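Changelog-adjacent note: as of this version, every example in the card shows the full chain rather than a window. The one below runs 955 residues end to end.
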Amino acid sequence: MKRLCIIWLLLGALPAVAQIPDNPHALRIGADQAGGSLFQGEIAAVRIYERALTREEIKALAGAPYEAKSTVPGMVSEWLNPVIPLVSERKLTFPQGATIEAWIRPAAGSVGRIVDKITPGGTDGFLLDTHPGDALRLIVGNEIITCALPHADQWSHVAGTVDADGALALFVNGVQAVGATPDFDGVMVKGAKTGPGKPLTLWYRQPARKWVEASVIGNGRLGGMVWGGATRERIDLNEDSLWSGEPFDNVNPNGLAALPNIRALLVAGRNAEAKQLVEQKMNGRFYECYEPLGDLQISFPMTGEVANYRRDLDLETAVARTTFVQDGTTFTREVFASNPGQAIIVRLTSDKPGKIAFTAQLNSQLRNAIKADGSALRLIGRAPVHADAYGSGSVIYDDAPDGKGMRFETRLTAVNDGGSVKVTDTGIVAENCNSVTLLLVAATSYNGPQESPSRQGKDPGKLCDGYLAALAGQPYAAMRDAHVADHRQLFGRVALDLGHGDVELLPTDVRLKRYAAATDPGLPALYFQFGRYLLIAGSRAGTQPLNLQGIWNKDIIPPWAANWTINCNAQINYWPVEVANLAECHEPLIDLTTQLSMDGAHVAKDLYGARGWMAHHNTDIWRHAAPVSGSAVWSIFQTGSAWLCQHVWEHYAFGRDKEYLRRVWSVLAGAARYYLDAMIEEPTHHWLVTAPDTNFENEFLKPNGERGCTCMGPTASMQMVRELFRNCLTGGAVLGVDSELRAEIERALPRLAPMQISPTTGELQEWVEDWQRTADCQVLSMWGAVCSAQITPRGTPELAAGLRKIYDGPKWWQRGLVGSWQGSFQANTYARLHDGDTAMAVLETHLKTQPNPNLLARFTPFCEFQIDGNMGHTAAVAEMLLQSQAGEIELLPAVPKVWPNGKVTGLRARGGFTVDIEWKDGKVTNYRISAKNDQPVNVRVNGEVKTVNPELLKQ
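Full-length structure tokens:
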């Protein structure tokens, strides 16, 4: 209790800090720091203020003559009719925000600086400019916003502001064009000075201004993004089975006949011709899109000022909470997605009776109709029959009365205490209530990957009836308690303490902008726990697995269709799941693998003439396994099935559940049968190789200058097949089954193309031949180190050195290539190679550049959110602390110097062990190994291997 009081005192003493990076550069008007980007046109006035001006102040300045001097308080510099380019060496600091204001008349097509104090191409200052000539742009650190400008050759008043929390806004001629100010929805919002005082809580002093600032909630099936607006609450909604399209056969009928010719071309070294044939004869069409369900918007009759505003997300309870004071009344909202209740629940209360009034409405971007039905508001909709994420971007509906396409329904009801609630076709209206609980349920007609959702689908209305019936009569406290208990049972298994600092007391968005590894050791721990939170919120037994965006998507055409990309992304999402003690959350990916094996058997037989099953680089909810359209650099990836089977195996390796292994054995064995049939001999060494294949979208360059992608037996594919074969030998022996299959594998295993060190570069080769890589970061041969134990520093030092040499040369992380799989590959490779400091350098760069304010990871510069960036770095944190892939449990295998002291409890190791570790000065001081069964295990502690008998866990 004493420490808590100290925290609150510190919070009260910390001022808000505007995140405007400082640098030694001069301030320049009309040009950049190199003297380029000259402003084309006239600049009549430039003023800089040491605070964010209000809308009214900016409107008044825009209405005054441009030659008039400003009298607005807070101005620190003013230039009238400056001769450009102008250089000012005046030292500027902005502890409470800033405003750059100017009168400009740009020439037609002008691209030039108005004010510049930033390194060209850097993130260490700010600038305001016209870019690319018809737009105004403001850059502050990593943040960029733009808006349209009026026609050229006209005088325009422009202003860019950054408030005390680092929020940006742009104004043109006195009107806010983009961004945010303290004025939200007509209400002036004043943020709370203090946070909740809980280390595992994300918190903010203002509502979300955009989707990637909203708080993330989910129950595995339903997802929500909570904005926390004062006058208008918005919750973006998702249901994990809502997809475009219907089942279809994607096997190219020309593929099997063309296969011998394609392989002959590869054997002859005619890779370019093989690529053309793959694209013409083997590829199918692109797959369908994951769709947004819609949104819930709640409008409140509120004007004036909102004080002491705070929005937070408690990771330990999975409850998003908004509190503020308006006109003397404290309002509180709680929002959570309940797995036991299969609903999103919104609780609206105040500390004075009769103060809750609102209108709640449902919306959807998809075709829908909304109507009142008794005590509920119903939104009934239909998904597109096709959404094209890769070509035209078209969205096609089948509007016939019995047309194809998935059906869905969202239903909203309200339970009030006092006052009145009325349900109309346009919304639910509440007046003079003491409190209201909103219950939102949703369902689709999805009935499995083989069934038409329009012809053989489930009835989403009946499903909604069932969800609401199960909640009927339950008091809010009981629903909340059930939700929290369910969440904590998973989340509470692991605790991680890497150290603390005063920055933990800052709002999360401000803390992110100030992050440095040396001063904020707690942020990696928070990010790790947030990754675990996302696994719990987005991947539960019986749900769909996390796709490219988890379950959170706002677009009808999301980036890359929000598919399951199984040449790395879907698997990275589950790299941390077992070690982070969330084995149950692994089940959706294992279910996907089982379902995919059905179409995968069709593809194996009718495209390759092989037994068993296989899958390529991509799949959707219809569980297609055939190659998609487009370039063979991605489409003909041969080992999507082998990589997924590694996850099937890892679930067994960590849990040692023999009955589970028996259930999934046919999936493992079927994948192995495919490769036994489908591999061919390469001509030089007569090794068995996959063909045709591609190396994770990484084109090769031959010594003769020929560039290509279609190949035989790239290193990563052979690593995956080798691991699958070894796992099948072990699993078959454990179960005592399939002796003939095991005999086939034993004959084939020593014939697989081995890993090789390039005689020209000393690097681990990516192909059977000594060819050169052409793509940054896309080094899939790291699979042997990160996803298996085929490459280890002690067991295979030469291979480990060859892999490390690939990464050490370019140091891609120093260039900021740390989003999505890029950073995940690098951070986890260095961790597995026992270099914690470099793994930490990758993680630090990621944390400085990729997390959005709500901690969802960007994939710069491609998309604003891709969840494998979160999951890959969650895994990296765990790998720095614990590894168990090499036949022993190793404690602190890659702990970085910036985490000299710490404690972790509840991590899992292969073999069914749970591990707790304490360390000081980088050395283990205390540890505990526990298990359900009494089985000795080798543990490497501070460089020494010990045989340990674990403590027995309660059954």
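Structural remarks: The radius of gyration is 29 Å.
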